[in-house]
Known about the structure:
Radius of gyration: 14 Å
CATH superfamily: Glutaredoxin
Number of helices: 6
Structural class: alpha/beta
Strand content: 15-25%
Distance between the termini: 33 Å
Amino acid sequence: MASPAIGTVAPDFTLPATTGGSISLSGFRGKKNVVLAFFPKAFTGGCTKEAQGFQADIQKFEAGGNQVLMVSTDDLETLGRWAESLKAAFPMLSDADGKVAEAYGVMTPGRKMAARATFIIDRAGVIREVQQGGEAIDTTGALAACARVSAAQHGKQ
């Protein structure tokens, strides 16, 4: 399945979160932009670097009206341990059956894990930018994309 195109409404979902309960993408509509970061596996090098990048800049993301959500096919218990080890101040979501990764076109063929991809979704629920692979490990690109989306929302380009 192909990734949804930039300029289209992001597929909605509800997933269990490390912060307790479940989180739905639609719950942020009209309130916050969403940084939806799919990653392959908790406790691995690139994924840890990416999560640490989000954590290092979490105040900048939040000050700009953005919600960071990291998603993998790891089970919630594993994600919870990893989030705790990183002192993550943002939710990590378990897509254990891979249905959300499939809806976003990031499920790795033949392997039950998501490929690395970050979707920047505006307050209206529309995908504005996508970063994939190694580009997505460096979260400064996501932060810059959020700034562009915010500027566009406020009519300043």
